[in-house]
Each structure stands twice: as C-alpha cells, then as structure tokens.
Write a structure and sequence with these properties.
The two termini are 37 Å apart. α7 crosses α11 and α8 packs antiparallel against α9. The protein has twelve helices and 14 strands. The radius of gyration is 20 Å and the shape is globular. It has 298 residues and is an alpha+beta fold. The protein folds into two domains: 115 residues, 3-Layer(aba) Sandwich (Aminopeptidase), CATH 3.40.630; 145 residues, Aminopeptidase, CATH 3.40.630.
C-alpha cells in the first residue's frame, strides 16, 4: 500500500518503481525529480512522500517544513492551497512555501491572487547540448578542449562503465577527495559525501549509469547520471583526483560520448549560489537554464 495524504513515509528502494511511473508520466524538466536524487539526499533533507489524487507529494524537513511541488496532473492550484493549510495547522509553519517549482506549475497557478511566485536563481539548472559537451568545438569551448587535449598528451587512460567491479575504488577516491577538502568542516560537503556513498553502495538497485577514468589501472575519476526525461540526461555526481589536470574535463566528455550521445541535452544541476561552482558551470556554455520558483502565500 502506498501512503495517502496526510500519511507520509520515508523513501526506500522498494518505492522506486512506483515513483518512477509517476515521474515518467510527468516528464520533469528539473533535476530534483529522479528517484535517485530523492533517495540519496533523503537523510539530508529528511524527505518523506505521499500520494494525493494521483499526485506525488514530497515533504522536506530541512530548516523547517516545506514541500516540493506536487508531481501529477493539472490543475494543482487547490492542492497547493490544501498543502499550505496543512503546513500551517499541522506543522506550525507561519509562512508555508513550495520550493524548486518548475515553470509548468508557475504558469498553471499564475492567476492566483493569494499566491506569490518568485524565481530562485541559485536553484536554476544548467542544461547543455550533449553534442557540445562531446565535441567541444569552436572558440567558446577552446579552453575545455585544451584541458582534454593536455590530459590525452600526458596520460594513458581507459574509460570504463561504472560497475560493481569498481565501486570500492570510487568510494576510496571520494573519501580521499573529502579528506583533501576537509568535508568534516563543511556540512554541505559532508552531506554530499553521504549522498555519494548512498549512490555508490546502492548503484545496482538504483539502476543508474556511471563511468570511470583509469590511469595506470587506478580509478582517478568517476561520474553518475541517468535519464531525467525523454530529451535530457542528468549528471548527479562527478568526482576526480584534483592533482590530475584535466580529469574533470575528460570524465565529463567521455561520459557524454559513451552514454548520452543519443540524448539531446545534459542537465548538470544547479550552482546553489556558490561563485566558484557558478563560474564552472557557465564556463561550459549552457544552452539554457531551467528556471525554478518559490511559491508562498501573499
């Protein structure tokens, strides 16, 4: 039995097929909406889920209670009002809100006088043409192409699909990276490390795609992703040995070429307002950004 609002349950691997069916019908444009993302970040955001009239509803309890947007058929306006009322009365939220809503929902409810819709730039997803990330052609990709070429000149490497055979080495690389960047002193990095562990240790059950770069038969970079919708793949996690110049550039280029050549777009998620991350994502010349919104009561 699936939970029915207002009953909620945590995300478990056994929920994957049911939730994927809802997501596949909706064809989400924003990176949050894969089962993998909801599962690997479930502890950080304290995600729980339920169903209301064919809509998937995700409750978050990270710095207060709020909802992600309902995923299901329109019209969702009255459901949003119901969820806000529940947050006020059951959770004591004085300013209930929905975070990371997509443009489809924003347009659906834009005439509602009691709701305020505001863009949240730090959450916008970066979407690239897969062909651009594979070929790195033209002046705007000159620097990235140089990184790849320098790597190719310097190292003998092998690209392999990520599998159970190299999970252990990927975990070791992530742990080494974490020690280097002092994850224990940064809650965001610590949470990311937990999400990486969840993704790798449950790799087969989550049925996601991945790749590794081997240098001297040692894993020096790995990447994880999956289809987000029929036109777009999403990259969840990417880690590389920072002491090997070009390792990030090569794992990204190889993963796109070997796994996503037939998919038009690659979503590389948001920058969370971090200047360095924003600069890095912009440097790959996104085709477009996927806007997200906060919805709250006027």
């Amino acid at each position: 039995m699936q939970p029915q609002f207002p009953e909620f349950k945590p995300f478990e691997l056994q929920d994957r097929d049911f939730i994927l069916e809802i997501l596949n019908k909706y064809q989400p444009p924003t990176s949050e909406w894969t089962f993998t993302n909801l599962f690997i970040w479930r502890n950080h955001y304290q995600f729980q889920w339920t169903v209301y009239q064919d809509n998937l509803i995700v409750l978050c309890a990270n710095n207060g209670f709020y909802f992600f947007q309902p995923i299901g058929p329109s019209s969702r306006l009255e459901l949003i009002r119901l969820l806000f009322k529940w947050l006020k009365h059951e959770k004591g939220e004085k300013a209930p809100c929905i975070e990371k809503a997509d443009q489809r929902l924003a347009k659906e409810i834009e005439g509602a006088n009691d709701l305020l819709i505001e863009p949240t730039r730090d959450q916008f997803d970066y979407v690239y043409r897969s062909e651009d990330l594979i070929r790195l052609s033209g002046r705007k990709f000159h620097q990235k192409k140089n990184h790849v070429n320098n790597f190719l000149k310097t190292y003998q490497f092998e690209y392999k699909s990520l599998s159970e055979n190299n999970i252990k080495e990927c975990l070791e690389l992530a742990e080494t990276w974490c020690k280097l960047y002092r994850c224990e002193e940064d809650m965001n990095l610590l949470s990311e490390w937990e999400a990486i562990r969840e993704a790798l240790t449950n790799f087969s059950a989550l049925k996601i795609q991945g790749g590794v770069i081997l240098v001297n038969n040692k894993v020096e970079a790995f990447i994880l992703g999956e289809l987000l919708n029929n036109q777009t793949a999403v990259v969840h996690i990417e880690k590389a040995n920072p002491e090997i110049n070009g390792s990030y550039a090569i794992i990204n280029q190889q993963f796109c070429e070997k796994t996503w050549r037939g998919v038009p777009y690659i979503n590389r998620e948001q920058d969370l307002g971090e200047p360095g991350l924003r600069q890095a994502k912009l440097s790959y010349n996104p085709d477009h950004l996927v806007e997200k919104y906060r919805i709250k009561l006027v």
